[in-house]
Amino acid sequence: MKIDIPKIAPELSARNFSDIFYEEDPILEMCNITDSDFENEAIDRVHLYSAVIKNCKFTNSDFSNIDITDVRFENCDFSNVNMSNSSIHRVQFINCKLLGTTFPESSLGNVKFENSILNLATFGNSKLEKVIFSDASLKNTDFYDCKLKNVELQKCDLDGANFDQTSLKGIDISSSAFDTITVSIESLKGCKVSSYQAIQFATLMGLIIKE
Fold first, then answer.
1. What is the dihedral of CA 78, 166, 140, 127, to 10 degrees?
2. With b meaning 16 or more CB within 10 Å and e meaning fewer, what string describes 38-64?
3. Other beta carbons within 10 Å of 185
4. Mind listing the pLDDT tens digit for each residue in 153-194?
């Protein structure tokens, strides 16, 4: 599946998150932000457009209602960041840490999480369309009641992930791994799995498989 990559301006100005802390309508656009720490802060309705953000720490910050478009994050730490009710489109998270990050009631489109840690992250009641998780750790990640369309899970760790009330129709998880996973039989209809995973699901459903 091809997804749209971020459309980032060729020339970017150097900025910092502290530049917008006191702004009524906080906007950062056409900028390059590197080695910036913005931890334990709270800014509502931040707008990030056409930016490259590297080696930044945002742990325990509140970015509710954030709007992110055409942005590439590299080696950033979003652990325990609140991004509820967010709009995230044409965005890449590369080698990022999103441990316990919350995305409930959000919309994600043309987004790629690559070599990133999303353990204990929550996406409850969100819409994900054209989203790729590649070599990502999704241990105990919560996808409760999500709408998934054109979502790929490539070589991910799904152990303990929760897909309750979320249809996996058309979703290919065959290259990913898990010991346990929460999903209903109804939600599994149309999901693409490996032969080993089919045995795992049968075992989780209480079936006794005889050789």
1. 0
2. beeeebeebbbbbbbbbebbbbebbbb
3. 9
4. 999 999 999 999 999 999 999 999 999 999 988 899 999 999
Rounded to two decimals, the pTM is 0.94
What is the per-residue pLDDT across 5-48, written as a single tens digit (0 to 9) for each?
999 999 999 998 877 766 778 899 999 999 999 999 998 899 99
Average pLDDT over residues 115-119: 98
What distance in Å separates the CA atoms of residue 105 and residue 158, rounded to the nearest whole number?
A: 21
* Domains in the chain: ranges and CATH: 13-204 (2.160.20.80)
Q: How many residues comprise the chain?
A: 211
C-alpha to C-alpha distance for 138 and 207, rounded to whole angstroms: 26
